[in-house]
Design goal:
- The longest helix has 133 residues.
- This protein is 66% helix and 12% strand.
- A hairpin with a 2-residue loop joins strand 4 and strand 5.
- The chain is α+β, with helices and mostly antiparallel strands.
- Among the domains are: 260 residues, 3-Layer(aba) Sandwich (Rossmann fold), CATH 3.40.50; 39 residues, no CATH class; 45 residues, no CATH class.
- The strands form five sheets. It has a seven-stranded antiparallel beta sheet with strand order 7-6-5-4-1-2-21. A five-stranded parallel beta sheet has the order 8-18-19-3-20, with helices on both faces. A four-stranded antiparallel beta sheet has the order 11-10-13-14, with no helix packed on it.
- Helix 10 packs antiparallel against helix 11.
- InterPro entries: P-loop_NTPase (IPR027417), Rad50/SbcC_AAA (IPR038729).
- Keywords: Coiled coil, Exonuclease, Hydrolase, Nuclease.
- It holds the Pfam family AAA_23.
Length: 887
């Protein structure tokens, strides 16, 4: 099928209008229009024409109706092989009044109507033998065809793509018989096993597994009992042997002798330790007396040292105090001298400042005279732009035409000229050649040799012959404007504006525009010279004359007579004043430093006097007592007498410590002997208790015959495990059979998907070198794509990559249909909106390559980008096609 033209009437924004999109060539056709021009409206209308019954009232049909209401009419001209057809539908949003027709363009005959027309569309265009058109159309903003995102009819169309392929796959792999076998296998497997291959609750396999587990637990319990009996017998043998060793009489006698010997050694060690402590106590008393004597001697020496240090400090402080007093007197004299210099400089500055003030007043008077002369010159320069401003304002008061009026007149003239040319094309004409009296029409003479249009009813009088009536063909004037009416509208517009011709209106507009520019230029010059206006300059001039008490001429004369050296005298005075200010600033800046030095010297003097007083008071407090020398001599004699007694006491303590036995070792040996005997007695008691318990346990286990029970349970467990293994092997065999059957079917599907791969893979590798893909057997679409060794799901790709793959898939299916003899048009409505510049160029190349044997129609609002696509250009036109016939 090849689409040639699409005609709409009363659809959405084209309310009560007829619009045509086309014509479409055999290869690539592009329609590039701005947004809101109706491109998507044509797409939706074509979709409704092919996929919706004429009596449908679905939302998609209601959305095509304009706000003003009315029936929606859609027609398309197509070619199927060598035959051309026109498909027409009228949607009245209800069954009554709606219709559908199939018309042969070669003969104009109506081939099918109503439901027969719908059946013709289904059998001829939508059947699987011709290819599902909807799969290859990309609606604006939607490139995917996933079942979760597509409309119901889109899903059905997609499923029809490979209906014949799926039928052949079923034929090879068994079809429904294969499904029955797989279902029986899955049912039998489901009866005994879960999806994870585990025994299913309630099944025989689960019962066998549970019995084996129960017997395994019984076996483990009985085995534990048998192991416990063997362990108890062994423990009884060990306990009996150990009790004999502990109750040996020789061992008991050795334990008693060891306790007595360790007790005697401990008593002797304790007596020697008591004598050492008594000797150490006597030594401590002598050492305490020695410390008291040494402390008294040290205190007397310390007091003497402190008194000598205070005398030295007092001498140093007296010398420092004298230096501080001298420095304070020097700083005080420098401050007095600085203050006197500052006073002299301030008096000199005051005198110079008064003289400078008088000089500045004279300079201001000179500046005012200069300003007065400049104002006279400025007022004189304003005369010329003021004259030009008055002339421009006079011109602007004259009548003129606005740009909107001129544009309207130009539009009317253009429409008038087009109407005249259209009427020449659509209406017949005639020529008159009279040999006598000329022919007349409504009393107006018709000139000879001049073509006359038959664009209205004409009653012509022919002298010597009679009359003739001429009428235009019915409907010939439809949608063509009347040029006379347009000329009348032009004349009325010119009359309202006050002009005779359009040329005069344009000339008046140009003069008005130049006057406006001249006015703006004059105003700009006036504003630049007098921002506040000419009157403000005059007021300033009068004020200066009043202040100076002279005219402009007198001011000029006084300015010439001024002393030329006055500015230099003023500058010299300003420099002298600045020098005095800098000198005063330097003098005042150095004064705080002198004040700080004076304050520092006064503070240091006060601090030195206070410290000197403190030292003298401390020396008075440390005056020596009268008996200090006697106390020192007495303490030295007592220390000498105590020295031999300390030496004797230390020697005695050292001798006792060297002869002392090890008290801790003796005590540890005695405790060890006691503990060894005690532990033997405790162990004997524990071993006798444990032996009694073991005798009871052995007696109980011997009566239960646990060894015979263990052998019986082990045999039952072996049989239960064999039965469970049989069920596991059966489940594994069924699962393996299902896997092989499904693998065989998948292999057959892959074989029949190969034609699609052969068409799509070269296209995909033009976009991504070395890429590969996998097809989802259920959706019959690309599921994963591999690029540079990395495999991604299609639905996680970027918007640009996703739309490119979706469009390439459609191109591949189109090539497959074409090889089968079914040409299906590809329609893309703003499909490449997310593609970058480099890949869009590659996509353009592939579209151009495919268009050699395939009809491709591209609608886009991206005029600049898609101008590089090439192919034929189609346009949206209004009023160029008869509206679909009323059915």
């Amino acid at each position: 099928m090849r689409l040639r033209k699409l005609i709409l009437h009363n659809v959405r924004r084209f309310a009560d209008k007829t619009v045509t999109l086309g014509p479409f060539g055999d290869g690539l056709t592009t329609i590039t229009e701005e947004n809101e021009r109706g491109k998507s409206t044509f797409f939706d209308a074509l979709h409704a024409l092919i996929f919706h019954d004429y009596g449908s009232a679905r939302k998609e049909i209601r959305d095509l109706q304009p706000y003003s209401g009315g029936a929606v009419q859609i027609a398309a001209e197509i070619e199927l092989g060598s035959e051309a057809y026109r498909i027409e539908k009228l949607f009245n949003l209800k069954k009554a009044g709606s219709s559908a027709r199939i018309i042969s363009l070669a003969t104009g005959a109506i081939l099918k109507q109503a439901d027969d027309a719908e059946q013709w569309i289904h059998d001829t265009i939508l059947s699987s033998s011709k290819g599902p058109v909807g799969l290859l159309w990309v609606r604006q903003g939607t490139v995917g065809v996933d079942a979760a995102k597509a409309e119901a009819e889109g899903v059905d169309a997609r499923r029809d793509v490979m209906s014949s392929v799926r039928g052949q796959i079923d034929a090879v792999t068994g079809g429904r018989r294969m499904d029955t076998i797989l279902q029986r296998c899955r049912s039998e497997l489901d009866a005994i096993a879960t999806k994870g291959g585990k025994p299913k609750a309630g099944s025989q396999w689960k019962e066998a597994e549970d019995l084996a587990e129960s017997l395994r637990e019984q076996q483990a319990k009985l085995q534990k009992s048998v192991d416990a009996l063997s362990h108890d017998l062994e423990m009884k043998k060990r306990l009996t042997k150990r009790l004999r060793e502990l109750n040996d009489p020789a061992l008991r006698a050795r334990r008693g002798d060891a306790i007595k010997a360790s007790q005697a050694e401990l008593a002797a060690a304790r007596d020697h330790d008591r004598r050492i402590k008594e000797a150490e106590q006597g030594l401590k008393l002598l050492m305490a007396q020695e410390q008291d004597i040494e402390r008294t001697i040290k205190e007397i020496g310390s007091l003497r040292d402190r008194r000598e240090a205070l005398r030295q400090a007092i001498s140093e402080r007296e010398a420092t105090l004298a230096k501080i007093k001298q420095a304070k007197a020097q700083v005080q004299a420098a401050m007095a001298q600085q203050q006197a210099t500052i006073s002299e400089k301030e008096a000199e500055r005051c005198s110079l400042s008064d003289a400078l003030t008088r000089a500045r007043q004279q300079e201001r008077s000179r500046e005012k005279r200069r300003r007065l002369i400049a104002l006279g010159t400025l007022l004189a320069s304003l005369q010329e732009p003021l004259s030009r401003l008055a002339e421009a304002e006079r011109i602007l008061k004259m009548p003129t035409a606005s740009p909107a009026d001129l544009e309207r007149l130009a539009n009317l003239e253009h429409r008038r000229d087009i109407a005249r040319e259209k009427r020449k094309i659509h209406f017949s004409s005639f020529l008159l050649s009279s040999q006598g009296e000329q022919a007349k029409c409504a009393s107006a003479i018709l000139p000879d040799g001049e073509a006359q249009l038959i664009d209205r009813p004409l009653d012509i009088t022919l002298p010597g012959f009679g009359g003739i009536q001429l009428r235009p063909a019915e409907g010939a004037a439809q949608a063509i404007e009347d040029p006379d009416a347009l000329q009348a509208e032009i004349n009325a517009t010119l009359g309202a504006l006050g002009f005779e011709t359009v040329t005069a209106a344009r000339a008046a507009h140009d003069v008005h525009r130049k006057a406006q520019d001249a006015k703006q230029l004059a105003q700009a010059q006036i504003r630049a010279s007098a921002p506040d206006g000419r009157e403000a300059l005059r007021r300033e001039q009068d004020q200066l004359c009043t202040e100076l008490g002279c005219s402009i001429e007198q001011a000029a004369s006084l300015l010439v007579d001024d002393n030329a050296n006055a500015p230099r005298t003023l500058e010299t005075m300003e420099h002298g004043l600045r020098d005095l200010d800098e000198a005063l600033s330097a003098l005042r800046g150095s004064l705080p430093k002198l004040q700080d030095r004076f304050t520092h010297a006064a503070n240091a003097l006060t601090e030195a006097e206070v410290l000197l007083g403190e030292r003298r008071k401390a020396l008075a407090d440390l005056a020596p007592p009268a008996d200090e020398e006697a106390q020192l001599d007495q303490s030295i004699r007592a220390r000498n007498e105590l020295a031999p007694k300390l030496a004797t006491a230390r020697a005695q303590v050292n001798q006792l410590q060297q002869q002392a036995p090890d008290l801790a070792a003796a005590d540890a040996a005695h405790q060890r002997a006691l503990q060894a005997d005690e532990q033997d007695r405790k162990e004997i008691h524990l071993q006798e208790t444990e032996l009694a318990r073991l005798n009871g346990a052995i007696q109980t286990q011997s009566e239960g015959a646990v060894e015979e029970k263990l052998a019986e349970v082990s045999g039952r467990l072996t049989r239960a495990l064999e039965r469970a293994a049989q069920f596991a092997s059966h489940a594994k065999a069924i699962d393996l059979l299902i896997t092989h059957l499904e693998a065989a079917r998948a292999q057959a599907q892959e074989t029949y998907f190969e034609p699609i791969r052969q068409e799509l893979l070269p296209l995909l590798r033009q976009l991504h070198a070395g890429a590969d893909f996998q097809i989802d057997a259920d959706k019959l679409l690309i599921d994963t794509i591999t690029r540079n060794g990395i495999t991604d799901k299609v639905d996680v790709l970027s918007g640009g990559a996703y739309e490119q793959i979706a469009i390439l898939t459609r191109l591949a299916f189109a090539k497959l249909f074409a090889k089968r003899g079914s040409h299906v048009p590809i329609i893309l409505d703003d499909a490449l909106v997310h593609t970058d510049d480099e890949r869009i160029s590659t996509m353009f190349n592939m579209l151009a390559q495919m268009a050699k044997d395939q009809q491709i129609i591209v609608l886009s609002c991206r005029t600049r980008a898609f101008s590089d696509l090439g192919g034929e250009r189609a346009f949206i036109s209004e009023g160029r096609e008869d509206s679909p016939r009323e059915h």
